[in-house]
Amino acid sequence: MSKKDEKNGEKAETALIDAKDARKLLFKQLDEQYTLPWKEQAALIRSETPMTERGIALALRVARSFGLPLQGLNIITNKRGEANVYVNADGLRWRLHTDPRGIRNSTAEVIHRPTTTEPWVEVKATITMGDGSEYTNFGAVDCIPGSGVSNALLKSVTKAKRRAGVDAVGVALPIAEDFLEWVDEERKAGKKVDIIDAEYKEMQSTPVAEPKNLAELFVWIEQHSHTIDEAEAVTGMSTSDMAADVESAIAKLRAAWETKQQ
Description:
about 50% helix; 3-stranded mixed sheet
């Protein structure tokens, strides 16, 4: 309402809409996306290779499961030709800003600065939701003292906040940007890169208690002295199926391993 309207005691129309109504409008747009012809859906999804109708069907199942827009997904094909689904920053922002709890605060704290013996930057990010629940995660980027520290700090903050966002909204998918940044760094170092999970590389030396995404599931499987191929055979699930339903994969693996021990 303008000051003039207030003085005249008149009610003014406003373009602002209630947050609940805004969420309804956004989810209506999701429903419209989900019913588009598959070729139009393919134009919305980020993929380095041409999308097939089967690949779109996989992405659509994942999008529906996690309430994500199609442009919030990346499809990356591994060296065996399997399509793996990743959530990207746009998808995380969508989920965070449509969460009924709302976001109260988002903070980042530098917990390690580079030294000659420990040349990396590490940041801790915390997202606080409207109901007071907090989600914390970490991001680290290699750098040497006095060279590119500011850029490394920005990247670490972004990485940590992305990971905290995944925890906050419960999207059990690896993060596309983490993977693509890792691939870029490896290629700049002159290394030949197979399409594998970047987070998987980072977590190999860290014990995983309860996997929340495909990267953690792969590490968890190997920490139990099994291979990914064995896991696929035992569960009857492909890598893409595991990405879409991590909990089912864990349950099937535990049941199979327990039966084998008996």
